[in-house]
């Protein structure tokens, strides 16, 4: 008897390896596939339905209706029907309301993650699987380069993590932080997932937003990456994904260094030893300062490289300058060799 088509085997192999690498999965644990009905997540769902039971796990799925297109509810229902026919159980349709904070792409992503957190909590899932591929990783790195982002952003998406945001979830591999997040297809390209769907007789749905030039990711996918491939030759997407892997190792090492530096420089009152922190390399200082600013209440999306450079000036270019105003009503000031970051009192000036 012939085995599965090569693309189907590749996707199943990737899912099998991803599940095997998740620490703390108990026999009988539930894993949920986030499936939009596109080729990537549909291939992931089919592979998980096949692989998970053989690994002693239960497999379910969630499809999110963002409500952004006419007929989206009916489409989500149709996707749910396909997922049930694949043998996934439970299957949930999660309808969300997409706000406007951070732009349409970020708002849709936030709403989607919130729905996935809610579904994982409701069903007691230990992990949520996402269908991001190597091509998605390349697009993420390219968008980070265009923004002038640092190493952590250019490191792209991690294969294993914790479902971001929100309150603590069930006690799966993510522990008190929530369910694990797994992206098992980051080593495969988009062509493989489409070939897997074709071999299985599955008809993916192509979201028109993925081709809409109003969205930055769509422009990266359909304009920027093809132009780079044409100019530099094939393999650009794979090279960008490899770059993400290398930078993730570097970013992890610098984050660990910054954690040690923060512990050594932070006093009982939460202020930072200016001279001690100034002696650290710039990459470490910026990480410590960013963490301190976020902890004081600065919104992550509003805290820019310019803000961090100004904060760093209180350490390395100290000339007695006054307090700084930071996003979120946070003030930063240096006094008596200590750097403090705190929310300003209502109606008051910045400082500590």
Task: Give a verbal description of the structure.
The chain has twelve helices and ten strands. The protein is an alpha/beta fold and 352 residues long. It has two domains: 227 residues, 3-Layer(aba) Sandwich (Rossmann fold); 95 residues, Chorismate Mutase Domain, subunit A, CATH 1.20.59.20. It is elongated and about 75 Å long. 38% of the residues are buried. Belongs to the tRNA(Ile)-lysidine synthase family. It holds the Pfam family TilS. Its main location: cytoplasm.
Task: Briefly note the structural class of the backbone.
Answer: alpha/beta
CATH class of the largest domain: Alpha Beta
Which superfamily, in CATH terms, is the homologous superfamily of the largest domain? HUPs
Please give the order of strands in the largest beta sheet. Answer: 3-2-1-4-6-5
Number of helices: 12
| Quaternary structure type | single chain
CATH architecture of the largest domain: 3-Layer(aba) Sandwich
Give the DSSP E fraction (strand runs of 2 or more residues). 5-15%
Low-confidence stretches: 167-176, 348-352
Question: Which overall shape is indicated by the principal axes computed on the Cα atoms?
Answer: elongated
Overall number of structural domains: 2
End-to-end distance, in Å? 74 Å
